[in-house]
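Entry type: protein chain
Record version: 2
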Amino acid sequence: MTPDKDAPLQTVWQGKYISALKRGRWEFVSRTGSTNAVVILAEHHGKVILIEQYRVPVGRRCVELPAGLVGDEDKNATVEGTAIKELEEETGFTADRIERLGEFQSSPGMVAESFTLVRAHGVRKVGEGGGTENEDITVHLVPRAEIPAFVEQRRAAGCAVDVKLLLFMGW
């Protein structure tokens, strides 16, 4: 039993999107609205759909799976609805069905945010993708077996790599 578990939660600082919190001796961050994201595993004709976009916190472009916040724009949003919306917006693909694979923590020692990993079924092209007017997303379709080499190639080009791509690294 950790002594911090029952300590009161304190907000140290809060911005528009992020809060710095403290419980006992433990400091961590949380989103100010939704703390749940959805991360989408989608394949089209045997190729995994990956995205690449600039991420301010790491100061460079990052290779990732498509994803989005659940409930950041619509408080009644569902994981499944958000997955389809984000998949279409970011990649130009849609899905007939979304299957939940589980909820995960990305960095549980520092961040309160969790994500629900989903698999998209019945994936088909419906648009251009690329994100919203504030995003500059490049879509990559990569055969599963080639993802480790693709990740190394993008890393050599200076890109950051989201930890969730470890799913494909075959270690």
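Comment: The first strand starts at residue 9 and ends at 14.
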